[in-house]
Write a structure and sequence with these properties.
Layout: H1 3-19, H2 21-66, H3 77-92, E1 98-99, E2 107-113, E3 119-131, H4 135-138, E4 142-154, E5 159-166, H5 177-187, E6 220-223, E7 228-235, E8 239-242, E9 247-249, E10 253-255, H6 258-269, H7 277-299, E11 303-310, E12 321-323, E13 329-330, H8 368-378, E14 392-399, E15 405-407, E16 410-412, H9 418-429, E17 433-439, H10 450-455, H11 463-470, E18 481-484, H12 490-502, E19 506-508
Helix pairs in contact: 2-3, 7-12, 8-9, 9-11
């Protein structure tokens, strides 16, 4: 037998082994099965450990919050720690598949500030182990799990709230876009093609080209002696003749203004009357009372409130602020209180720029500086809020953000100026906080008014930053500030700002 043939016979079994693919798969699978079993076992046990840790973290959250809730914040640090431990162990007592020592866990660290528990930080930590189902394969009976959570809180303080509301003429704007369109359309004339968006309250509206007519195009007359109104048929030097045949004396009445129009729009044109921002402001103040009552009850504190309005300094008065509630009152005693009608509190100006025929003030109807200065003397120094006899103080301001006053020797009809912001700083430096609700002043409200387009519109972008600067900062740097624009609820915004001001607890991990 040749050497070549012999080599071929020796190589044949090797070739057959290489061609036997099913045998190779079996061998490869045998090699792969061991790490595969390890991977599956580890995934199952690791997943169980993660699920267990998630549930224990939730228990730690509940435990930390139990040490900083309203009731616990009025207890000692040791009592708060006991409450946290009890809460945690109650939450995890039903969990299986773990090794856990309830005598050593959880650890609770409590740090408080102040002689009273005015501030508290609570950290709840735990250690446990998840029992492995594949412990023999993995060579480990358990997987360690641990977690920690921190809750920071302060005692809800007792607070006196001073609610200062802007009821100046610039707040006589409709609160909805539908209202803006309606009042402009109704006051449109050849003299004022775009109409007027403001509900101007004036004895001589025609001096400002304001004509209020009914759907038939008849001018409307107001008889101030009787309170009646009528479409005009004709007039002479002393009398007004109504389409109904009624005759009124001119000296006892006036042409209807756009202020009257807002309350009688439905009678003239159908639909609904026009709601103004001062109406929404009044409603917001009324609706804030039950919100404050509920918050005080939930926080187990005393909230008191006093209401003020501001516009301009009237003759025989010392400033632009009017006191609406005679004294600071516990909100729990205000459940049936009715906020006065701000619409009826509006002045009937003689004409634009002149409140009366003998007094003209260049239309300076929003004295922010004098209002803030007067409030600064009205509000006593605040306390730390630890008791109702030692309350903190918060000044709430609802405004459209434009001052219209004498600044130096000139009229200022723009955003809060440097003097206004200095007034804000003076108040805040006394420990009082300022919270501001901005009823946004929109450019479209100035459409058709050439003076406003030149003197107000270019500065509207400055209004919000100035108000934010006046408002107090929260611990996280954000401001006690809220903005509400046309078609949004001033009531909802004021309630949100109130909640922002009184909220205290936060959870951090």
């Amino acid at each position: 037998m040749s050497i070549t043939l012999r080599l071929a016979r020796l190589a044949a079994p090797g070739r057959r082994l290489l061609r036997g693919r099913r045998g190779n798969v079996t061998i490869l699978f045998a090699f792969a099965i061991v790490p595969l079993i390890f991977a599956v076992g580890f995934a199952i046990d690791y997943g169980r450990a993660l699920q267990l840790r998630t549930r224990m973290n939730a228990a730690a959250d509940a435990a930390a919050l139990a040490a900083v809730n309203v009731a616990a914040m009025r207890q000692s640090d040791s009592a708060a720690a006991d409450a946290a431990r009890a809460m945690f162990n109650a939450q995890v007592s039903g969990l299986g598949g773990m090794v856990y020592d309830s005598t050593a866990n959880p650890t609770v660290a409590v740090t408080s500030s102040g002689s009273l528990t005015t501030g508290r930080s609570v950290t709840v930590s735990y250690k446990a182990a998840s029992i492995n189902l594949f412990g023999g394969i993995l060579g480990a009976a358990t997987l360690p799990i641990a977690g920690s959570v921190t809750a920071d809180a302060t005692v809800a303080p007792n607070i006196n709230f001073y609610l200062l509301m802007d009821i100046s003429p610039s707040m006589l704007l409709p609160s909805t876009s539908t209202g803006l369109t309606a009042i402009r359309s109704a006051t449109s004339s050849s003299s004022l093609p775009n109409g007027c968006a403001f509900a101007c309250h004036t004895m001589n509206p025609r001096t400002d080209s304001i004509y209020v007519r009914n759907a038939a195009g008849k001018d409307m007359w107001l008889d101030l002696a009787s309170g009646n109104a009528c479409p005009i048929s004709s007039t002479d030097s002393t009398r007004v003749y109504c389409t109904s045949g009624t005759v009124y004396t001119k000296a006892n009445g006036q042409y209807a203004d756009s202020y009257w129009l807002t309350r009688n729009y439905a009678a003239l044109y159908g639909g609904s009357n026009i709601t103004l921002r001062i109406d929404e402001e009044e409603t917001a103040a009324q609706n804030l009372i039950p919100v404050a009552i509920t918050a005080a009850r939930n926080n187990q504190v005393t909230y008191r409130m006093q209401l003020f309005t501001f516009d301009w300094t009237h003759p025989s008065t010392s400033g632009p602020v009017k006191t609406i509630t005679s004294s600071m009152t516990d909100v729990s005693q205000m459940a049936s209180y009715d906020v006065p009608n701000f619409y009826n509190m509006q002045d009937n100006w003689y004409r634009n720029n002149c409140p009366t025929s003998s007094l003209c003030n260049n239309d300076q109807g929003t004295e922010v500086h004098n209002a803030l200065a007067q409030m600064n003397t009205t509000m006593p120094n605040p306390g730390d809020g630890s008791s109702s006899a030692n309350p903190q103080g918060v000044l709430f301001i609802i405004t459209d953000g434009l001052s219209d006053e004498l600044y130096g020797s000139s009229r200022w009809n723009r955003e809060f100026n440097a003097q206004n912001l200095a007034d804000c700083t003076t108040i805040k430096n006394r420990g009082l906080r300022i919270a501001i609700l901005y009823t946004e002043y929109l450019p479209e409200s100035l459409t058709g008014d050439a003076w406003s387009q030149s003197n107000v519109a270019p500065y509207l972008a400055n209004v919000e930053p100035a108000l934010q600067s006046c408002a107090s900062a929260r611990p996280d740097g954000t401001r006690l500030y809220y903005k509400v624009t046309t078609d949004q609820s001033i009531s909802d915004a004021l309630a949100a700002l109130f909640a922002l001001t009184v909220q205290t607890a936060r959870l951090t991990r």
